[in-house]
Amino acid sequence: MNLREKYHIPHDSVITIAGTVGVGKSTMTHALADALNFRTSLEKVETNPYLDKFYADFERWSFHLQIYFLAERFKEQKRIFEYGGGFIQDRSIYEDTGIFAKMHYEKGTMTPTDYETYRNLFDAMVMTPYFPHPHLLIYLDGSLDEVLDRIKERGRPMEQQTPISYWREMHKRYEDWINSFNACPILRINIADYDLMNNKASIEPVLEKIGHFINQSRY
Ligand SMILES: Nc1ncnc2c1ncn2[C@@H]1O[C@H](COP(=O)(O)OP(=O)(O)O)[C@@H](O)[C@H]1O
Ligand SMILES: Nc1ncnc2c1ncn2[C@H]1C[C@H](O)[C@@H](COP(=O)(O)O)O1
């Protein structure tokens, strides 16, 4: 019996991993996809044509970047639908608007007009009855210090040059956002409760929780 069957996780499940930058979403996405034999839907940072420019000049590039992310995530959403599920998704589409676009608008690095245009597009594309929401959103929770350590360790140059106040603001916003999130069921996992780097088997308790939770909420 494979791990997916062992923990009664339906083969067509769509699980999205949410959490602040550096918390460990991509690492968890790969570990879960390997364990469940699911496909991955990843954020491709290296091929993003706006990300470096955005970190160098938020005002100039925030709208372009949000539109780029929206298009990328929507294409991924279509791919997931066409395969009929069985996916682990690295970051949810809800974070783009609920965290990033909102933060840049409220901090004055996205104009009110650009924000409104973006929101209208987002609502028209995503907040419709036709949009398939994931079966489960796994929220990775970690302290600001743990997250800062991981951003540093990963070493993406544009993130190293970004002031700590940006990550602190984002961390706070994530806490508020997840406390009021209700678009799909949530499973919260603290990053101190598993260690995928040193103990691959620490994915099993996560799978057990997913199985338990997804069966409670899906049927
Ligand atoms: N469970 C873990 N324990 C220790 N380090 C981790 C763990 N998960 C991820 N990391 C490290 O933290 C950094 C950020 O992880 P990543 O998965 O890229 O985060 P995200 O996708 O949320 O931005 C990477 O250097 C990764 O190797
Ligand atoms: N919607 C977004 N707006 C601005 N920046 C974003 C958005 N989504 C992701 N990002 C950035 C944050 C990181 O620098 C990279 C990748 O995110 P990660 O959490 O490391 O997977 O893209």
UniProtKB/TrEMBL annotation:
UniProt superkingdom: Bacteria
In this chain, substrate is annotated as bound at: 43, 55, 66, 91, 96, 159
Q: Name one GO molecular function term.
A: deoxynucleoside kinase activity
**Deoxynucleoside kinase domain location:** 15-215
- Per the record, the coiled-coil ranges are none
Q: Where is the active site?
A: 90
Q: An example Gene Ontology cellular component term from the record?
A: cytoplasm
Pfam families xref list: dNK (PF01712)
Which positions make up the signal peptide? Answer: none
Could you tell me the keywords of this UniProt record? ATP-binding, Kinase, Nucleotide-binding, Transferase
Q: Does the keyword Kinase apply?
A: yes
Q: Which InterPro entries match?
A: DCK/DGK, Deoxyribonucleoside_kinase, DNK_dom, P-loop_NTPase
Quote the record's binding site residues for ATP.
19-27, 150-154
Entry similarity comment: Belongs to the DCK/DGK family.
The name on file for this protein is Deoxyadenosine/deoxycytidine kinase
Q: Name the species this protein comes from.
A: Amphibacillus marinus
Which lineage is the organism of this entry classified under, starting from the top rank? Bacteria, Bacillati, Bacillota, Bacilli, Bacillales
